[in-house]
Amino acid sequence: MAEIVRCGWCGTDPLYVKYHDEEWGKPVYDDKTLFEFLILEGAQAGLSWITILRRRDGYRQAFADFDVEKVAAFVEADVERLMNDAGIIRNRLKINAAINNAKLFIGIQKEFGSFADYMWGFLPNKKPILNRVKSLGDVPPRTEISDLISKDMKKRGFKFFGTTICYAHMQATGMVNDHVEGCISR
């Protein structure tokens, strides 16, 4: 029986393995899912992804099931509610950034038709980039494309979306496929 090969970063944690096998690197064109990852990636800044993944359900409850219109309408009372919610990372800057980013996300939807069209528009022919990855050491923390997207989003006012977070977002949503060669999810 052949050994199952996975990217080493997911380890053996069942939640991480499920995320690796079913989501990471799979192309996402749905704005709701892209918004979810925008919130989650921003929350992850300075933390490990597994920390956020373990709180994903808490984020789903706290942030109106990732309904961008509802999050964009959050007010100071919502910020205070979120600051007391043990199911998420209680960081005021990240919470305020999520609300701010929701408003900007809607603006991009209006300008481009969808957030997906905006994001995928940075890629050649709007197609996923399949990188040749032999080991985790081959995976860059950022690329010229993540630099471009991040710079444009910062210019638009987005917070907690620097080039490294942007590249992680691109990986999570399948804009780039950085699964190692031989991985079952490649």
TrEMBL record:
EC number(s) recorded for this UniProt protein: 3.2.2.20
Which keywords does this chain's UniProt record carry? Answer: Glycosidase, Hydrolase
Q: What class of enzyme is it?
A: hydrolase
Q: Which Pfam families match?
A: Adenine_glyco (PF03352)
Matching entries from InterPro entries are given as:
Adenine_glyco (IPR005019), DNA-3mA_glycosylase (IPR052891), DNA_glycosylase (IPR011257), Tag (IPR004597)
Keyword Hydrolase on entry: yes
State the Gene Ontology terms under molecular function: DNA-3-methyladenine glycosylase activity
| UniProt-listed Gene3D superfamilies | Hypothetical protein, domain 2 (1.10.340.30)
KW Hydrolase (keyword) present:
yes
Q: What is this protein called?
A: DNA-3-methyladenine glycosylase I
Native source species: Pedobacter panaciterrae
